[in-house]
Each structure stands twice: as C-alpha cells, then as structure tokens.
Amino acid sequence: MNIKNDLPERAEYENSAGIVDTKYFTFAEPPDDMLLESGQTLGPITLAYETYGKLNDDKSNAILILHAFSGDAHAAGYHWGDNRQGWWDSVIGPGKAFNTKQYFVICSNIIGGCKEAQARHRSVLQQATPMRLLFRSLQLAIWSMPSII
What we know:
single chain; two-stranded antiparallel ribbon; 9 strands
C-alpha cells in the first residue's frame, strides 16, 4: 500500500473499477412522499449510489447491482484516502464478469440499509416517535423500489 495517500499502488487500482465517488439521489420529497401499502408515507429519501463504466447513447448497457447483496453502495474500485476496495471488486471492472468497458454498472443502497441511506417519516420529525414503531410490518419488497424509480 502507498502509505503517503492511503491508496493501493497504481497498478492495483487500475485493475479495478479505479477511483470512484459516491453520489446521492433524493426522491419522494413533499408533497410527493412515497405511499406505502400500509397507507403511511415515507420521504424525503436519500440513497447513496456508485456507477462504474459509461452509459451508452441508447442506454441499453446498464446493469443494476442491488444493495441487498452488498451492505452498501461501494461495490467496486477505491475511494480517495481509503485503501479498501469495493465488496465485489473481483467481478466489477475492466475485463471482469461485469465488464465496465462494455457495461454501465450501478449499485445503490436500500431504504433502511446500514449505510448512507436516509428516509424520514413526517410524524417522526413532528413527534418524538421512534421509527421502528411506525413501520412494524415494513416488508422487504421496498428494497427493490429504487430500481423502479
């Protein structure tokens, strides 16, 4: 490792998706909160995501890697100042199974995930009600919601 800037040696990160930035997307902002099957609403929601490769002109080369497999959006490459590669760096990158010279790979966090995802319920902000009491039966189907938004 390169102690000076806490990055792997250049050859090591060039064989990966490279240096990547985490981006953020906010949706379900009032008055367009996300309506849940329970009738309650959720929003605004901010999700972290990372992309690897380049989206082609007709947008037909995108692959979505769902967060449920990852724990966070950092699936490949390295961040500046951090020598930990993404959790699936061995298969996302140039010449790998998810070839970033051919495909545009997206990995996003999930609502309620452990890292870099925020969702607010209006009554939580207005009252001091713990979030867990409002969504006792929140189901896993919501995990894939960002993929259809």
